[in-house]
Write a structure and sequence with these properties.
The chain is of the alpha/beta class. It has 15 helices and 17 strands. The strands form four sheets. Strands 5-6-4-1-7-8 form a six-stranded parallel beta sheet, sandwiched between helices. The chain has a six-stranded parallel beta sheet with strand order 11-10-9-15-16-17, sandwiched between helices. It binds adenosine monophosphate.
């Protein structure tokens, strides 16, 4: 079911509550990556252009004690947003109370205010994270309509998403809409051939994703640490490579279920120690020695990936195929990144997390159709799970006209 978007609701003169994801990385009060702020701007600008009163809020990190509050204020984010958007952003250092209510009452059309970190409400009984009904109702009382643009928290039912949504007309912001269109669209209705590339450390973190994608994709290419549990399940010696012994049986079942769809590395870069500056060699999957561990996929595997990706029309990638944080074991992940960046005829989607960070870091950010901003949320979406933050968006009104070309 299509969801209502910010373009489907009346904004003029309305108090528009906007849940954004401003959970940015910070060091000593300084924002080290403002990508999440940049990504939220189209929705905020649209609300402002339409004459809505934009009331922004977000969580930032975990806040469990009064001491946590001091280092978790959203003030630096409000300052950064003001610089980026070129309009005043009034910051209210509270999450509730008279000062906030008066500031909202005195807003003019197209004004922007931002209130304090929603997790400040977690100090007494995790009200925000546990979706306390009183808190959701209170925040809802501050607005006329609700726009949820925080895909990154959509896999959790919080007072600041589902809580508010249960009381107000609720629509997706542009960023949320983009995530649903690309990730949801790719999984539920992919243009084929559809190939998934899954890497990362452990099978256990991604069982749901592997299972779901095995049933939807035409091929699932496995790399990274999780490949070794599968190789072990096939009876190969994997030396000291990362392996989840309690998942070997499951890996065997998945291999049977996959019926040839699951592609494992055929060569690897192995070393005796888990560190960058250590001798390493490329070897085949059947020749790992007892004292060696696999830390990257090898050149033949890259060629195999290339072959499997040929002609693909939809590609989803989640998880690095090697220990990309170490230069000597980053070649496989770089190669995957480059390969996908050059697939001009395919929809290429990165499902958040480390692979998204790797692509951005390598300068390929604008070469992909979509890079998800959600780590946990995009994983759960790839698993095919219903996300509370998405479920709580209003359904779009279906268009009954036969002649127009709208896609509703
Ligand atoms: P994930 O968060 O599950 O996507 O895992 C990402 C992590 O997997 C990164 O920190 C990588 O260093 C790690 N990783 C990838 N390949 C391997 C490997 N062969 N051995 C150990 N860790 C790996």
């Amino acid at each position: 079911m299509k969801k209502k978007t910010v373009e489907d609701i009346v904004l003029k003169g309305k108090r528009v509550l906007v849940r954004v994801d401003f959970n940015v990385p910070m060091k000593g009060g300084v924002i080290t990556d403002d990508n999440r702020i940049v990504q939220a701007i189209p929705t905020i600008e649209y609300i402002v252009e339409e004459g809505g009163k934009a009331i922004l809020f977000s969580h930032l990190g975990r806040v469990e004690t009064v001491e946590d509050k001091a280092k978790s204020s959203l003030l630096p984010v409000a300052v950064r947003l003001q610089e980026l958007i070129g309009k005043p952003v009034k910051f209210i250092p509270q999450t509730r109370g008279l000062a906030l209510e008066e500031a909202i009452a005195s807003m003019k059309d197209s004004d922007i205010i931002m209130f304090e970190n929603t997790r400040f409400e977690d100090i007494e009984g995790k009200k925000e994270s546990k979706n306390n009904p009183e808190l959701g109702l209170y925040w809802a009382s501050l607005g006329d309509v609700f726009v949820n643009d925080a895909f990154g928290t959509a896999h959790r039912a919080h007072a600041s998403n589902s809580g508010i949504a249960s009381h107000l007309e609720t629509a997706a912001g542009f960023l949320m809409e983009k995530e649903l269109r690309y990730i949801g669209g790719a999984v539920d209705n992919p243009v084929r051939p559809f190939v998934a590339i899954l890497g990362g450390a452990k099978v256990s973190d991604k069982i749901g994703v592997i299972e779901n994608l095995l049933s939807k994709a035409d091929k699932v290419l496995i790399g990274g640490g999780m490949a070794y549990t599968f190789m072990r399940a096939q009876g190969f010696n994997i030396g000291t490579s990362i392996c989840e012994n309690d998942k070997i049986e499951l890996a065997k079942e998945l291999l049977v279920k996959a019926n040839g769809k699951l592609i494992l590395p055929i060569d690897l870069v192995v070393s005796k120690e888990f560190k960058n500056d250590t001798p390493h060699r490329v070897t085949t999957y059947s020749d790992i020695q007892d004292d060696e561990m696999g830390l990257d996929v090898g050149p033949k595997t890259i060629e195999l990936y290339k072959k499997e990706l040929q002609g693909a029309k939809t590609v989803i990638w989640n998880g690095p195929v090697g220990v990309f944080e170490m230069e000597n074991f980053a070649k496989g992940t770089k190669a995957v990144c480059e390969m996908l960046a050059n697939m001009v005829d395919a929809k290429t989607i990165i499902g958040g997390g480390d692979s998204a960070a790797a692509a951005i870091q390598m300068g390929y950010a604008d070469k992909f159709t979509h890079i998800s901003t959600g780590g946990g949320a995009s994983l759960e979406y790839l698993e095919g799970k219903a996300l509370p933050g998405v479920e709580s968006l209003d359904d779009a009104v279906e268009c009954n006209c036969h002649d127009c070309d709208c896609d509703k």
